[in-house]
Amino acid sequence: MSIASSRDAVVTARRRFFGEGRPVDGMLAAPILRSWQRCAGQGLDASRSPLVEPPTAHELRELQERHDRLGRLARPELNALQGDACLTGSVVILTDAAGVVLDMIGSGEFAGRAAQVALRPGVSWSEADTGTNAIGTALVERQPIAVHGAEHFFERHRILACAAAPLIDPRGRVAGALDMTGPAAIRHVHALGLMRLAAEQIEHRFFSEGFERCTVLRLHTDRALLGTPREGVLAFADGVLVGANRHGLDLMNLDWPALDLARLETLLPSVRPSDQIQMLRGPRGTRLWGRLVEPPQCRSRAASAAVVAAPSPASPVGEVEPILDTEMLAQLSRTVRLVEAGIPVLLLGETGSGKDVFARRVHAESARRNKPFVPVNCAALPEGLIESELFGYEAGAFTGARRQGAPGLLRQADGGVLFLDEIGDMPLSLQSRLLRVLQDKQISPLGGGRPVPVDFALICATHQPLGSLLAAGAFRQDLYFRIAQYVVERPPVRHHPDRLALVRKLWRQLGGEEAGVQLSVEVERVLAAYNWPGNYRQLVGTLRALLVLGEPGHPVEVSALPAEIRAVSACDSQGLVPPVTSLAEHTRSALQAALDASGGNVSRAARRLGIDRSTYYRRLLKDKDRIR
């Protein structure tokens, strides 16, 4: 059905349903019709504006603090989707279980238009308050859903095109929703697929907290997908099922009522606690691959040591684990031993080369695995807030501070691993404070207060040449020798010895084979030949997009590839040499393009890119320094 005819069908359905009270069966998607019927049954009037009352700043702050854990677990996903949202003039929204907007990032220009229809933090977008919309309807239907234009219940929401997926926690309760909303004039064909994948990532991450005393079973029909968000996860306390994700329940032919009833010994009598992957038989005779891990108090030191060679149970949200060759596996094992001995490690490598994923895997395979992993992107924190975010503050330390104070990210890492990404972007003034913390093993929060002892393993990372920063006086030499007691280099994707095998392995990890979507031989050739200036992040992002675009039974063709990759392929096939574009040049072009599109207004350019203004200035100045 064409866009025009679909739009006409919805307009006709609206006239019959709202104006004439006639049935419209078959004219709308079933979830949309059910939602219209629910809204009408509640007495909502589609011709009027919904009655919503935005909260005060104080109420909004309290709301966000109440849902701090959800916001923290979803933050990596919001950050990963921010670029997609900015490129499509959309916003990505996180809500609580009641449909109240907690966070919104993406296009600043569209966010302003959305605010005109009360789509902003603190406002409820439940069906009862705001009629048929992707957020509210996905929460009621407990399934991903897209609502476009006139499919919304209220007339004034016809300017929106929304796609949302509910977030289901390990107890089967709705925890919130993730939504992408943009202008209805644009058909956002990939939004629903992106939301579905992102929701899976967040639901997978729910198991990172609260299940430390449980025996956790991770399983899948494809061995390669263990450790990814596509795996099934089942948590048992004293042998009884107490938590699960939807993949896990489906693999075991169970539903949510099985919680607190089903027993591990009945479901899988042959499974044994081990860090090694086992072959199992599911209830329908399906061959499964699984790993059953007991809580730390039930494991011997020998069992803990054996995990060093095993895959990490979870990759960071929004990422797929890079493939490690024999040398990198040995490097991983050495790094785990160093971290456990309290020796700081510095990861070097280009942007997107998998430093963050490597750090997470080190944490997952170390003795600190059951304590926090706290990642801090030193380049992303607003310059005016970076000190308070890192070191914390006492109540009333500055205007706008939370009344009860905040512990800071360094204290949150106590007992676990602190990962300082882009350490080269840390201001000099804070480098001296960080050095003092590393020397004294204690933190003094802003606003006074007693120093607090901390114990964390430190992993730092940067894509910058720290040697040049040292020579220029932009990085402290004493801090460098403190954090770089062991250096690990992550090679770029273009140096991978078998890029075709890499592409195929990542495709399996993303679930392409399971979904029945295949890459054509020509697409595989082009992907393997491309140099990937953005490394794993760019490669995985491209594969995710192809998975959304692909259809089961039809190989993905070259026409589906992004334009810049097709252009390189065309040059290669014609014997031409395409211009080499570095990641720094990509960044510089993006900064300048945003500035040009914003009429020279730096604040507007920063909003277009979804970054802080101070971060924009720092990036721009660094690029100018490189040119000089």
TrEMBL record:
Q: Which UniProt keywords apply?
A: Activator, ATP-binding, DNA-binding, Nucleotide-binding, Transcription, Transcription regulation, Two-component regulatory system
What GO biological process term is on the record, naming one? Answer: regulation of DNA-templated transcription
Q: Does the keyword 4Fe-4S apply?
A: no
- Read off the PANTHER family from this record: TRANSCRIPTIONAL REGULATORY PROTEIN
- Any Pfam family the entry gives: Sigma54_activat
For whether the record's keyword set contains DNA-binding, the answer is yes
A molecular function (GO) term: sequence-specific DNA binding
Q: What protein does this entry describe?
A: Sigma-54-dependent Fis family transcriptional regulator
Q: Where is the Sigma-54 factor interaction domain?
A: 327-548
